[in-house]
Amino acid sequence: MRVLVVEDDSRIAKDLECALSAAGFRIEHSDNGEDAWFRGGTEAYDLIVLDLGLPRMDGLSVLKRWRREGCDCPVLIMTARGAWTERVEGIDAGADDYLPKPFRMEELVARVRALVRRAGGRGSARQRIGRLSVDLNRMTVDVDGIPVALTPLEFRLIAYLALHRDRVVPPTELLEHLYGDNDAREANALEAVITRIRRKLGSGIITTRRGFGYGLDATE
């Protein structure tokens, strides 16, 4: 899953990137409000972590513009501003969660995971789809109870399909959510990843609807 971290403090941004990358997320970083507003309005993210004290445009203004312009990506606000009135203002502006600084990275990762699950309509971290079981917290996959070793990229792909298992996911959407700005987003590369995963999971787990995209087989 693809996450945009909006934070102007380079040390905090690096810590966030390390923690969220280790939790299986693909991270991109913005250090000012204008750039964040543009990225959030033009790119597809699964979640945005937004600091309020930003240069060039404050985080609350960025959030209000996103919502006014139709950006419905889940947003987790983090800020050193601790007054309850500011938290209420952030939630009313369209934030999905609010985490005051200082905080534990473990709590931020847990909140990010929960927001991504809820955005996909899933309450549990463990998703079972037919013979496949995906644990979004432990980042594990098994088929018929047998663990399957996947690379981080392969796991992200399976996790995304699991969170959106009620529909066929187009290749362009998978490419947007699996890869960052600096990665080559090519359909051939995506097909190669899916071929590798199919070898590991066995036939029939990942389904293809020609001309539409990919899904997961829910047959027990």
Q: Briefly note the structural class of the backbone.
A: alpha/beta
Task: Write the element-wise H/E pattern from the N-terminal end onward.
Answer: EHEHEHEHEHEEEEHHHEE
The tally of helices reads: 8
Mean pLDDT: 91
Radius of gyration: 18 Å
Which residues sit in consecutive blocks of at least 5 with pLDDT less than 50? none
End-to-end CA span: 26 Å
Q: What is the 3D form?
A: elongated
For the biggest sheet, the summary is: 5 strands, parallel
What is the tally of beta strands? 11
Helical residue percent?
40-55%
How much of the polypeptide forms β-strand, as a percent range? Answer: 15-25%
Strand order of the largest sheet: 2-1-3-4-5
This entry's quaternary arrangement is single chain
Describe this structure in words.
- Residues 2-116 form the Response regulatory domain.
- Residues 124-218 bind DNA.
- This is Response regulator transcription factor.
- Pfam families: Response_reg, Trans_reg_C.
- InterPro entries: CheY-like_superfamily, OmpR/PhoB-type_DNA-bd, Sig_transdc_resp-reg_receiver, WalR-like, WH-like_DNA-bd_sf.
- This protein has helices at 10-22, 33-42, 59-68, 84-92, 105-119, 152-163, 171-178, 187-201, and strands spanning 2-6, 26-30, 47-51, 75-79, 97-100, 126-129, 132-135, 140-143, 146-148, 206-209, 213-216.
- α2 (33-42) packs parallel to α3 (59-68).
- The protein has 220 residues and is an alpha/beta fold.
- The strands form 3 sheets. The protein has a 5-stranded parallel sheet, with helices on both faces. It has a 4-stranded antiparallel sheet with strand order 6-7-8-9, covered by helices on one side. The protein has a two-stranded antiparallel sheet with strand order 10-11.
- The longest helix is centred in the middle third of the chain and has 15 residues, at 105-119.
- The two termini are 26 Å apart.
- The model has no long low-confidence stretch (mean pLDDT 91).
- It has 8 helices and 11 strands.
- The radius of gyration is 18 Å and the shape is elongated.
